[in-house]
Amino acid sequence: MNIILLGPPGAGKGTQAQKLVDGRNMVQLSTGDMLRDAKTSGTEMGNMVAAVMDRGDLVTDEIVIGLIREKLEAGGDHGGFIFDGFPRTLAQADALGDLMSEMGQSIDHAIELQVNDDILVERILGRAADAVAAGGTARADDNEESLKTRLMAYYKQTSPLLGYYYAKGDLTGVDGLGTMDDVASEIAGVLG
Ligand code: AP5
Fold first, then answer.
1. How far apart are CA 63 and CA 89, in angstroms?
2. Exposed/middle/buried for 145, CB within 10 Å: 0-12, 13-18, 19+?
3. Does the predicted interface ipTM exceed a cut of 0.95?
4. Which residues are known binding-site members for AMP?
């Protein structure tokens, strides 16, 4: 089973992906994590995307599609892929559809985690404050200004994917406001 987790920054995509990895032996493909790894290790691509990510804009389709293609080609024995934070544009969604068909597979569910903006801001700024309180550093894009840009990017470039997957009959909305376990149960209900 292959699933997409859709939702704005702070909706809980990473949190719920991790629960699915633990419970169903699925593989999490988070383009955000891949890009942050590249940034931290100072690869040429990491240096190229750093400023774009830090201000909250989207990295080019070409780069993220390339990252996903590499992971899919690596294969492996598992319970399916969880796409976390990918696709984020219609071009990425089309590319994912093509990659899946080349592999003789398809997307089974696109799950939209629904959380209102006030709570998203609270969660993201709360995560930044917790990181600092624990003696670490906050994610470079977990600040008010970058978050505004991230939310704008979501509503402008990513939210059209809701219609895209709805038209394919793959979209299910899940209330992302409950506890992490409540949200996980709702997702489990969708996946069966
Ligand atoms: P990415 O890493 O994907 O960040 P994001 O979408 O902004 O999402 P987050 O990771 O902040 O939130 P999340 O929904 O995963 O929630 P989480 O579980 O972490 O992308 C970062 C950047 O990389 C982008 O801005 C862009 O520049 C680039 N990028 C990535 N993919 C790209 C692509 N495909 N195309 C182009 N550019 C791309 O939870 C957030 C917080 O809330 C946590 O503290 C968590 O503990 C808490 N929380 C979660 N669930 C709950 C709950 N139910 N109740 C209470 N708290 C909760």
1. 13
2. exposed
3. yes
4. 31, 36, 57-59, 85-88, 92, 139, 150
Structure tokens at 61: 């389709």
Output Rg (C-alpha) for the chain, integer angstroms. Answer: 16
Query: What spacing in Å lies between the alpha carbon of 98 and ligand 1's midpoint?
Result: 25
Euclidean distance between CA atoms 51 and 24, whole angstroms: 35
> Under DSSP, is residue 83 helix (H, G, I), strand (E, B) or coil?
strand
Say what percent of the chain tops pLDDT 90: 95
Rounded to whole angstroms, the Cα distance separating 107 from 83 reads: 10
- pTM, two decimals, is 0.97
Q: What is the largest CA-CA distance in the chain?
A: 47
- Output phi, psi for 26, to 5 deg: -90, 165
